[in-house]
Write a structure and sequence with these properties.
FAD/NAD(P)-binding domain; 36% helix; globular; alpha/beta; transmembrane helix; EC 1.3.3.4; oxygen-dependent protoporphyrinogen oxidase activity; binds flavin-adenine dinucleotide
């Protein structure tokens, strides 16, 4: 009996660790990309040597350290203020990355002018929020991002930005105890299966029974034997391990194909709408893949695999963190509101899973635009077609030729720096010599062909539905459900990726602890978002129109949840080539690209955006901050030792951060924070 109980505890611990770490943490895009990882070095050195370094930190590492880190940051800003050399910059693309980049540049007193080039007539890129009147009030529909990941320290750059923009009081924070955080489902024929997560209102025994019952669900078929496989299987030889592999291959060889097909494929449908046979494990599962060496046990006969490593790290409270997050936090300017709110933000981020804003993520874009206009430094060049972009041969700087709709003519301009946040292929198309009387421009070089290798993005159809019935769902309210690739065609002919229970993912607490629960929607009822397509639609030349998409979404909801009500509002949007895919070999390709761009454009062309180093809005904000600081060589890494400056433990003075893709050469660090 005692043994059984112990086994039960071990099982529960394991379920938490594995499912939370592998499934739920990656659900919010927890694995950004290392772009400067020195793969050659990684091949020859030990598995942890370059990509994943351990920091030996004392136990006193606590959140308030960030608060203290403000003062040196302010000093750095003051140093910056003392710089005399001024410059002009061009930012290509008006999505969240481009707008954040322009915002960060505008904070630099030595930056004279920023010209932001956007080829369409609107700013925000994939971020589109719409407030729709319905009977009894309004609902907010999102056609792009809807939930912003809350994690420490990863969410801080975005939270700092929002606070600097005056949005602190507008945050809607979904706490870890909310239904949206607790209840996440996977559809496995023919029902929604709640993923294991302990419910605080249940006793230990009740939670245990619930775990055991969940494990009996067919979706967990061969799950336990998969764990045994991982514990017993030896790690790959370092030379072989240094080669990238697909997510399906990695999960398959450690835990068996069932875990990959039934669980992991669903998660990657939720984040990337992608195919785990093509997505890169090195890029997206780096923090987990680094652990396959295990901890060694039974006289070194058994490695323990990922499972034992996760358990051991959980006991020692060691977490894998991303160096870039710390670097972005370190250079962000702190306005008076941020100085006041910094500690509150850390507490808030630690207790939440996601956050958003009352009018949707689009509110962040509105605030950014208002701030950029108020700065007086930013010129918005809307509807502008860039014709050519080229480096000067002798002097530094970039020459750009573009069609000015305002002047009705082609204009040429020289910039000190160009930061591109547009898709790589779009950039490749404009990297050529302007038809300019001057001849001293550098040859085009290899950059365009390297950019063109990064040309795979998937298309998704987003269908937003509103029903007046607030009790529509047949299961407990939650975040929503995902559909794995192992579902037979008859169960998913619409190529569904998942359904978001958008009513409950857009409610939460305000930043004032005494305020009642906040919701984006003033009308009662149920808001659902159905996501279709993704990698299933690769190679399609035609896509469903609005009526067909709504019919498909409703058919899917009827089959999966027996929902037959008619929505009173249905809006859809086809998001074409919207989600870039980090396929096998991504890190190597980005490493080569970054170095080539640095060389060919003399550190004057910087690349950012969701194609390079993480897809989430938080990742894009971080990229924007990094490129407008270290990327243009205006900031150096501060070497005052602090747990929030993990680079001081490395040979950081030799890191190349200027030009190309800015990111730290050491990608993942172990931390107690
Ligand atoms: C359906 C969907 C759901 C998502 N859900 C979430 C979520 O819940 N949470 C989350 O964190 N993230 C989510 N994401 C991801 C996130 O929204 C994007 O990764 C992010 O918005 C990308 O921002 P960006 O500025 O890098 O690129 P973009 O938004 O693509 O902006 C690039 C801009 O450049 C412009 N441009 C292109 N070519 C040129 C050119 N030649 N000259 C000038 N301008 C040009 C474009 O018009 C565009 O405005 C989602 C994405 C999609 C599509």
């Amino acid at each position: 009996m005692n043994e059984e109980w112990l086994e039960g505890r071990a099982l529960i611990l394991f379920m938490h660790l594995l499912l939370f770490q592998i499934l739920l943490s990656v659900l919010f895009i927890d694995s950004p990309v290392d772009l400067q990882k020195n793969n050659n070095e990684a091949k020859t050195n030990s598995r942890m040597s370059h990509e994943h370094q351990t920091l030996h930190r004392s136990a006193e590492m606590r959140l308030p350290c960030v608060h203290k880190a403000l003062r040196p940051r302010q000093r750095q800003l003051n140093l910056l203020n003392g710089q005399k050399r001024t410059y002009t910059a061009a930012v290509l693309g008006g999505g969240i990355t481009g707008l954040t980049t322009a915002w960060q540049l505008a904070q630099d007193p030595t930056c004279r002018t920023i010209n932001l080039f956007e080829k369409t007539d609107r700013l925000g890129g994939w971020i589109t929020s719409e407030t729709v009147p319905v009977d009894g009030g309004n609902v907010v529909f999102e056609y792009g991002p809807r939930t912003l990941r809350s994690s420490l320290p990863g969410s801080l750059p975005l939270l700092y930005l929002a606070t600097n923009l005056g949005l602190y009081k507008d945050l809607i924070v979904t706490p870890k105890t909310s239904p949206a955080a607790q209840n996440r489902y996977i559809y496995y024929p023919d029902r929604l299966v709640r993923m294991p997560a302990p419910k605080p209102e249940l006793s230990f025994g009740e939670n245990f029974d619930s775990f055991v019952n969940t494990l009996k669900e067919p979706v967990f078929n061969k799950f336990l034997s998969g764990i045994v496989k991982d514990v017993l299987a030896p790690a790959r030889h370092p030379t072989e391990w240094a080669q990238d592999e697909s997510v399906a291959e990695f999960i398959g060889r450690r835990f068996g194909p069932n875990v990959a097909d039934n669980l992991v494929s669903a998660v990657y449908h939720g984040i990337y709408a992608g195919d785990i046979d093509r997505l890169s494990a090195q890029t997206l599962l780096g923090s987990i893949r680094n652990l396959e060496g295990g901890i060694g046990g039974i006289g070194g006969l058994v490695s323990g695999g990922v499972t034992a490593s996760l358990i051991s790290r959980s006991i020692s409270k060691t977490k894998t963190r991303i160096m870039d997050d710390y670097m972005a936090i370190d250079v962000m300017p702190a306005g008076p509101e941020l100085v006041r709110r910094q500690h509150d933000l850390e507490v808030l981020a630690a207790g939440a899973t996601t956050f958003t804003f009352p009018r949707g993520v689009g509110q962040l874009i509105e605030a950014l635009i208002a701030s950029l206009k108020a700065s007086g430094k930013v010129n918005f060049r809307m509807n502008t077609e860039i014709k050519a972009l080229s480096a000067w041969e002798s002097s530094s700087g970039i020459a750009m030729e573009y069609w000015s709709a305002r002047h009705g003519q082609i204009k040429t301009f020289d910039y000190g720096y160009v930061i591109s946040t547009i898709p790589p292929v779009a950039l490749a198309d404009i990297l050529r010599k302007p038809e300019h009387p001057e001849t001293k421009l550098s040859p085009v070089g290899l950059t365009p062909s390297l950019l063109r290798k990064q040309d795979y993005a998937v298309t998704a159809m987003v269908v937003n539905l509103y029903y007046p019935n607030p009790n529509l769902l047949p299961v407990e309210d939650g975040f929503g459900y995902l559909i794995p690739r192992s579902i037979p065609y008859e169960q998913n002919p619409e190529c569904g990726l998942g359904v978001i229970f958008a009513s409950s993912s857009s409610v939460g607490n305000g930043t004032d602890p005494s305020s009642p629960e906040l919701s984006q929607d003033s009308a009662p009822g149920t808001k659902l978002t159905v996501m279709l397509g993704g990698h299933y639609w690769d190679g399609f030349e035609e896509y469903p129109d609005h009526d067909t998409a709504v019919k498909m979404a409703r058919a899917m909801l009827k089959r999966h949840m027996n929902i037959t009500d008619t929505p009173t509002v249905a809006r859809s949007r086809l998001q074409k080539d919207a989600i870039p895919q980090y396929t096998v070999g991504h890190l190597d390709r980005m490493y080569t690209l970054s170095n080539t761009v640095r060389k060919e454009y003399k550190n004057r062309l910087i690349l950012a955006g969701n194609w390079y180093n993480g897809l989430s809005v938080g990742d894009c904000v971080r990229q924007g901050i990094l490129s407008a600081t270290y990327g243009i060589g205006r900031n150096r890494l501060n070497d005052e030792p602090s747990p929030w400056r993990p680079w001081t433990s490395f040979d950081y003075k030799r890191w190349k951060l200027e030009g190309g893709i800015v990111t730290s050469p050491v990608r993942l660090v172990d931390s107690k924070i």
